[in-house]
Amino acid sequence: MGDVMIPEILRRISNLARFGTIAETKSANGKALARVKVGERVTDFLPVMSFSSSFRRHWIPIRPGEQALVVSPFGEADSGIVVRGIFNHGQKEPSGADDTTEIIEWEDGTRIAIDTIAKTIKVDASGSVSVVAAGPVYITCTNATIAADTVTIDAAVTDITGDLSVGGGIMDARGDLTNFSTTDGAERA
């Protein structure tokens, strides 16, 4: 009887953790599922591990061809979870990755890089960037530079609390100029 159990035990041990490649994906009923090609066989649809799923939810689409690890706690190949995102020869880390820089890079070339030693965050967007907030937006820094062909400020009221230096001409001023003074302090209406 003991000899009959040894092959079963060895099979289960070999199925505890297996490397493979995502073969097929689906997302139904709020679950990310994938089938993984492990050797010559393909698993059933298994849940895919995420970074978090409670107070913060982070969805990253799963794609066929991505290398993954199937972890089967009881050694049953068609049960367990898929741990994804293993870098390999075909899928390398983004350029600039090192021990102090976290990089998120998308297929269109958009990148966010955070370097904890240089204390920098760099966003390279291949398209437009929109920030939408239900409340005020505050930007606090030592210096700010905006380099653009055109800048539009669309606001009911714009307050500038410090000095304003204009390097070029003021081409179009619509409306009244009120409550201003000259450099000698004389008020103008």
What is this entry, summarized?
The chain contains one helix and eleven strands, in the order H-E-E-E-E-E-E-E-E-E-E-E. With 189 residues, it is mainly beta.
Explained architecture:
By secondary structure, the protein is mainly beta. Helices cover 7% and strands 28% of the residues. The protein is built from 1 helix and 11 strands. The strands form 3 sheets. Strands 1, 2, 3, 4, 5 and 6 form a 6-stranded antiparallel β-sheet that branches. A hairpin with a 2-residue loop joins strand 2 and strand 3 (41-42). The radius of gyration is 29 Å and the shape is elongated. The model has no long low-confidence stretch (mean pLDDT 87).
CA radius of gyration is 29 Å
Quote the average pLDDT. 87
Low-confidence stretches: none
Helix content: under 10%
Class of secondary structure makeup = mainly beta
> Biggest β-sheet: count, sense, barrel?
6 strands, antiparallel
Gross morphology is elongated
Measured between the Cα atoms of the first and last residue, the distance is 104 Å
Give the H and E element order: HEEEEEEEEEEE
How much of the residues is beta strand, in percent?
25-35%
Number of helices: 1
Per DSSP E runs of 2 or more residues, the count of β-strands stands at: 11
Features:
single chain, 189 residues, mainly beta, three-stranded antiparallel beta sheet
Write the SSE topology.
Blueprint: H1 2-14, E1 17-28, E2 31-38, E3 41-42, E4 46-47, E5 67-71, E6 81-84, E7 101-105, E8 111-115, E9 120-124, E10 180-181, E11 187-188
Antiparallel strand pairs: 1-2, 1-5, 2-3, 2-4, 5-6, 7-8, 8-9, 10-11
